[in-house]
Predict the structure.
Amino acid sequence: MKATTTPSTSAPVAHNALPPPSASSTARSSRIAPHSHIKGLGLTAEGLAAPDSAGFIGQTNAREACGVVVDLIKSRKFSGRALLLVGAPGTGKTALALAVSHELGVKVPFCPMVGSEVYSTEVKKTEVLAEAFRRAIGLRIKETKEVYEGEVTELTPTESENPLSGYGKTVSHVIVGLKTVKGTKQLRLDPTIYEAILKEKIVVGDVIYVEANTGAVKRVGRSDAYASSYDLESETYVPLPKGDVHKRKELVQDVTLGDLDAANARPQGGQDIMSVMGSLMKSGRTEVTDKLRREVNKVVKGYVDQGVAEVVPGVVFIDEVHMLDIECFTYLNALLESPMAPTVILATNRGNALVRGTADIVSPHGIPVDLLDRCLIVKTDGYNREQIGKVVQLRANIEGLKLGPGVLEQIAEEGERGSMRYALQLLAPASILSGLAGRSQIEVEDIGETNELFLNAKTSAGNIDPEGGFDGGRMW
Ligand SMILES: Nc1ncnc2c1ncn2[C@@H]1O[C@H](COP(=O)(O)OP(=O)(O)OP(=O)(O)O)[C@@H](O)[C@H]1O
Ligand SMILES: [Mg+2]
């Protein structure tokens, strides 16, 4: 991993998201999968949106507006504000939010949540928001450590009779051979390190390093020399390390404040990434309290002042923001103004709506005006048939589905009648049907059959109430 050139001695300032960090909070990544074709906003150097770029089709106004916001964030002029994306369902609000986070850097922490997540029976509403904000602030820790690094050439546990119990044998030590370009070395390591080796699934041919002081073992990747054995693998190959096996190495660890809070609340968990924060480890804590957060902040600030760590604010994305209530909104205002706030992106598909938690305050998007005043609002537009077709084709490519003649036109037409999301959702069931029929690609018949088996929203509602009846809150 390369070190960045940004000075790291400054105090934690919000929105200094210039260097791309990497986040370790991947637990929520599944919600991003439908947007895997989105690589960024696809803007030119002048900030203009090409009609089809970086996986984004059309939506040029919104993309250009988001480009300006990215510039504001990068020049640290966005503190205390939020970006609000409004538009009909399926018009790419979530996709835009993700693109903004990509533009800020490949691995800027991105913490998506849905407004309704705050209604948990166990945790305070505001606590859920506070946690999301902490998960969106990255910390890049640089340390120079004494390590043994190299390609594993030998991995032999040595067993001996256990002198304490009469039963069987235990591992007394493990012999690990490490090779670099310059030489090889054989290490005799403690059995606890052997457990770590098993946990990291390290085998001969992997490049690893062992920290001399703590004995923490880290797998860097598979050695280049083994790269040709398989064609398709989700493996990262790394070159044989240069220099001696025993050396000083700059290690970079990326964590979020949320990770640190959680690790310190659960003393046993996640100890490998937290080695640097070991001073905070105290036993007996079970939940993340404000006091704990303040302690973590203090330690983090210390590290930042020493130039050991660098704060990297990421992005909190709150979808369906009209689901928040007045309590959450006031708390959000306060969070926005805190000195270490990440970038906040909100999205909603509601027009005028009642602010939750109030009896009669109707406000645009169900958001109180004092928060609205802090927002830059960007609207997403609907799509035409051609644009829907292009997005469907992108998704089909990503999902590895082949489309027969005429299929794309047919799905795009369905999308124009229903919605973009409906068109995209047709792909999966249609591919199952084509598989059942023994075809290798989706044909027009499969789409026809999908439409027979399943209803779209309009035909479905029409089935029950021919008048259409109540307007279920649609505002656009
Ligand atoms: N302009 C676009 N280019 C490429 N893909 C798009 C575009 N707009 C939307 N998509 C894709 O269409 C799907 C639906 O869009 P998305 O989920 O972003 O809509 P949304 O506005 O967040 O809807 P909702 O209000 O229901 O949350 C996603 O898979 C998204 O990646
Ligand atoms: Mg969405």
Summary: Residues 93-94, 319, 347 surround magnesium ion (ligand 2) (CB under 6 Å). Residues 386 and 412 are 7 Å apart (CA to CA). The first helix runs from residue 60 to 74. DSSP finds 13 helices and 17 strands in the chain.
